[in-house]
Amino acid sequence: MGKKTLYIDMDNVLVDFPSAFGHLGEEVHAAYADRLDEVPGIFALMQPLPGAVDAFHELSGLFDTYILSTAPWENGSAWSDKLAWVKLHLGVPAYKRLILSHHKHLNHGDFLVDDRTRNGVDRFRGQHIHFGTDAFPDWKAVLEHLRPLA
């Protein structure tokens, strides 16, 4: 039997989404007030969450690991920016392992680390590890949970 399959979301799981906000001018904040994810190029400005890169590298050795993320439909650069971010921050273990979909439940696997229940997460057939909750507040907690399950 092969390795168990693990999917990891990007935004607010691997990527610190708000880290890009300081790079945007006031006029951009005003123009995209409630839809900052639609700002062209915003996904290229984001930094990794603390511990995320090391956790990804460790988990890639233990599981058949993929990045499973959505990209805003109205932001064409988000798709290429997310790929560039993965290449820059995650490197070889993430080679050709980025899946962009608004239907995460279509991916079959054992575990999904995600901070939300939208975009099919609520219908994912494996275990949803709800990142950022009391049970899984950070990467340390996620690693402690997943290591024994590999």
Automatic annotation (TrEMBL):
It comes from Stenotrophomonas koreensis. It holds the Pfam family NT5C. GO terms for biological process: pyrimidine deoxyribonucleotide catabolic process. InterPro entries: 5'(3')-deoxyribonucleotidase, HAD-like_sf, HAD_sf. This is 5'-3'-deoxyribonucleotidase. Coiled coil: none annotated. GO terms for molecular function: 5'-nucleotidase activity. Belongs to the 5'(3')-deoxyribonucleotidase family.
